[in-house]
Design goal:
By secondary structure, this protein is of the alpha+beta class. The protein is built from 16 helices and 35 strands. The strands form eight sheets. A seven-stranded mixed β-sheet has the order 5-8-3-2-14-18-16. Strands 1, 25, 28, 29, 32 and 35 form a six-stranded mixed β-sheet that branches. Helix 6 crosses helix 8, helix 8 crosses helix 10 and helix 11 crosses helix 12. It is globular and about 110 Å long. It starts with 12 loop residues before the first strand and ends in a 25-residue tail after the last strand. About 40% of the residues are buried. Pfam families: Peptidase_M1. It comes from Chryseobacterium pyrolae. This is M1 family metallopeptidase.
């Protein structure tokens, strides 16, 4: 027999004595405001950012174009640079100074941001880790050395360096619509990023005596001036990443002649820097559907042995990017292929650069992963707009427009583990994916790490799933975040926290927001609504500067879902999900007990009451000669209020009226047969964790069949601590499993199962009878409104 969940129609049947409302008899103190609107927590909408989450009609953003020349001195491991910046003031404000970022000062012992971490004595140490403390700290020689800061005519500009930031005081105000052209010359010693940490620097390969350079945060860069923050000139400490201005770049890099360069944008002089064979292979790669080696492994090995003293200059250009990074080494194997983005028919060169130490992995997977990533992200966000996308093996991961740095080296014999392979593919997807968040959807990473890392990690998860359905993703699925959510509260911060203040940075900025978005997509909103809203956000804020409120508002605006409860709990709070099945009450119908006798309650209608206490307002109103009291004089108005209070009919005072409670009729044989196998189940849930979520149930019946049901999170809106739900089945339940697919991030699944043989069960009966037909409504109920169910029981 097909399983049925029985729904009662009160025009036919009614029951009494078994309702969820009977259990929830203490409605007070139930609310922690989990379902209230975010309201003033979010910034007030304005002409720049609307209440719908889209840019307003007054939205603006400034722009900066760069013309840069760089000289890489491999012997001294020094970079010398000169740049001309054209800064466009599109804001409505007059600017009398501007701010630039000097990120390399983070590597200096005397010019860094000065954000220190606490320290304790170690239980053990080694001679490399232990050093005598120098107070004050000695200058280690790293950081930016400014040689010259001038206007376009060469006149010196006054500037002040504050740690990792530089303020230039302008000789005249830069007004709205004006542009400023100025020049900066600088140099710095390139750090060993493997030993010193950081995103940019060199890695030395002692076996062959070569360096691999990743040139990042290498030039003085304009800070963002915005409608929501003014100047974003928070210091760079190494963790909170970047807030940057869009613009166009022309960059020339002079390096040893045997070096190969990859960089943001397109190289404009390959024909001058590549051999004829390499140029021919590049032309083939431009139309290839499989990666072709442009610089071969044999060529890279040969170049490692001969350190050329000659020089070459590579010229790159990039349009509408927020940053520029590059890599240089004679160790590089370089391969590439063409990938077409269907949504905009953009033909992109997907390329990879890697030393021989990574050849066994990168030759097989890297460029294909690059191509897969930009195609998949284009499906979920916006079509990839740039002409190239590149992955560089550099022992660690970091992202920039059109180029990123990743890990993925084999053992010396060329073998590798599944863990290394999957880790390498995952990091390539992640870092290439950053082209979308934040390189195009250009959020402020210095303030909100989750807006790039979290959104990107979520889309990375979708992309990994489309790469391999069994891919061992560690971030995204709800169950993977539970260990973090279990931590003590003193180790947790809300997602909506500045990156510098977070203890568990990885779970907070990457995993938890990614998991939250996956829960929204799979469990709360559904894929169709979520995907439309997510694409809308990407489209609205491509090549602009979004803030958290813009994301939250767009997701609601495009989906029609009120998600404030979710943002409040998942992003602004630290409560975990722990919903438990507290008790199950099982009830069967009592088919033989005769219905109760009909009752009739009599009452008299009283005249409307009047407040006899003379409060201060009444006294002053009575003394005010300008006030006329209409109610005392207008009998019809009195009657109006009287009728409104008692119902639609006019009732006479002091006349006796009655409310008749309709009794039911005994069930006939046909009805008894129909409902003899009926069983009611009231399931009582307790919210132990504090974070509300949908209630998802799997019913397993004694005959082995299963049934699934989901209640939205709004079932908790009137009582956030406990709630009950009642079901009626014509089969006996064997077990009830809460959250069977582990899709709500419930941290304790031990309280999610009920078995019919368990001790947490109460058994009772409820009366079932046939309702009389044609009884019509009876008067009564709150505020005198018609309540036809008053005598017939309450619907669960």
């Amino acid at each position: 027999m097909k399983l049925k969940a029985v729904l009662f129609s009160f025009s036919v049947l009614a029951y009494t004595g078994f309702t969820a409302q009977n259990i929830q008899n203490n409605p007070g103190s139930n609310h922690g405001n989990r379902f209230e609107q975010l309201g003033t927590i979010l910034p007030t909408p304005n002409i720049y950012r609307t209440a719908s989450g889209s840019p307003g009609h007054g939205y603006w953003q400034n722009k900066a174009d760069y013309d840069i020349t760089a000289y890489l001195d491999e012997d001294k491991r020094n970079l010398k640079g000169s740049e001309t910046i054209t800064y466009y003031n599109n804001s409505p404000d007059d600017l009398d100074y501007i701010w630039l970022q000097l990120d390399e000062n983070e590597q200096s012992t005397v010019k860094n941001a000065g954000f220190q971490f606490p320290s304790t004595l170690p239980a053990s140490s080694n001679d490399q880790q232990l050093k005598v403390t120098d107070l004050p700290e000695k200058d280690n020689g790293y950081g930016v050395n400014l040689e010259k800061v001038t206007d376009a005519s060469g006149n010196p500009l006054k500037y002040t360096v504050n740690k990792t930031m530089m303020r230039i005081d302008l000789p005249k105000v830069l007004k709205k619509g004006e542009k400023l052209v100025f020049k900066v010359d600088w140099n710095y010693n390139i750090p060993n990023r493997i030993k010193m940490g950081g995103r940019g620097g060199y890695e030395n390969f002692a076996e062959d005596g070569n360096d691999l350079y990743t040139m990042t945060q290498w030039y003085p860069r304009m800070c963002v001036y915005s409608d929501f923050h003014g100047w974003q000139n928070h210091q760079f400490t190494g963790r909170g990443e970047f807030a940057l201005v869009f613009g166009n770049f022309k960059v020339s890099m002079n390096v040893p002649a045997d070096h190969i360069i990859g960089g943001t944008g397109e190289c404009k002089n390959y024909d001058q820097v590549l051999t004829s064979d390499q140029m021919s292979r590049y032309r083939k790669a431009e139309s290839a559907s499989e990666p072709i080696e442009i610089v071969t492994l044999d060529e890279a090995k040969k170049a490692e042995k001969n350190h050329s003293k000659q020089r070459k200059t590579w010229n790159f250009e990039a349009t509408d990017v927020r940053d520029f990074a590059w890599t240089s080494s004679r160790k590089f194997v370089w391969d590439g292929m063409r990938v077409t983005i269907p949504e905009n028919n953009n033909k992109v060169m997907a390329m990879s650069f890697y030393p021989k130490e990574a050849y066994g992995l990168y030759r097989k997977y890297s460029t294909k992963a690059v191509a897969h990533t930009i195609k998949t992200y284009s499906e979920f966000t916006i079509p990839y707009p740039y002409p190239v996308a590149q992955s560089v093996e550099a022992a660690n991961g970091m992202e920039y427009p059109m180029i990123c740095f990743n890990f993925g080296r084999t053992e010396k014999d060329g073998t590798y583990s599944e863990g290394t392979k999957n880790g390498m593919i995952g990091v390539v997807i992640h870092e290439v994916g950053h082209n979308f968040f934040p390189m195009i959807i250009n959020s402020d990473e210095r303030q909100w790490s989750w807006m790039d890392e979290g959104l990107n990690t979520f889309t990375e998860y979708l992309t990994e799933e489309k790469w391999d359905n069994k891919f061992p993703s560690k971030r995204g699925p709800a169950w993977t975040i539970t260990d973090y959510m279990k931590l003590p509260k003193d180790q947790l911060e809300p997602i909506m926290s500045n990156s510098e203040n977070i203890i568990q940075f990885g779970p907070n900025a990457y995993s938890k927001p990614a998991t939250g978005l996956n829960i929204l997509r799979e469990t709360i909103m559904g894929r169709e609504l979520f995907d439309k809203a997510f694409k809308t956000y990407a489209k609205r804020w491509a090549f602009k500067h979004p803030e958290p409120a813009d994301f939250f508002r767009t997701m609601e605006d495009a989906s029609g879902e009120d998600l404030d409860w979710f943002w409040r709990g998942w992003f602004y709070g630290t409560d975990p999900v722990d919903i438990a099945i507290d008790k199950v009450t099982v009830a069967v119908p009592d088919l033989n007990t005769p219905p109760k006798e009909a009752k009739e309650t009599k009452y008299k209608v009283e005249k409307p009451l009047q407040n006899t206490f003379e409060d201060i307002s009444k006294i002053r109103n009575k003394e005010d000669k300008n006030i006329t009291f209409y109610v005392d004089k207008d009998k019809d108005l009195q009657d109006f209020y009287y009728r409104y209070d008692r119902g639609t009919e006019k009732l006479d005072a002091d006349k006796e009226y009655s409310v008749k409670t309709e009794a039911g009729l005994p069930l006939d044989a046909k009805d008894q047969e129909k409902f003899k196998n009926l069983t009611g189940y009231q399931i009582d849930f307790v919210n132990k964790g504090g974070l509300v979520m949908p209630i998802i149930l799997e019913f397993t019946f004694e005959d082995g069949t299963k049934l699934y049901d989901k209640s939205s999170a709004q079932i908790w809106r009137q009582n956030e601590q406990k709630v009950s739900k009642t079901y009626y089945f014509d089969k006996k339940i064997k077990s009830i499993q809460l959250d069977p697919m582990r899709e709500t991030a419930d941290i304790d699944t031990s309280n999610n199962l009920w078995n019919s043989t368990g001790t947490d069960t109460q058994v009772s009966k409820f009366q079932l009878f046939k309702q009389k037909q044609g009884g019509g409504p009876v008067r009564g109920g709150a505020n005198g409104k018609v309540n036809p169910m008053q005598a017939a029981g309450k619907k669960s």
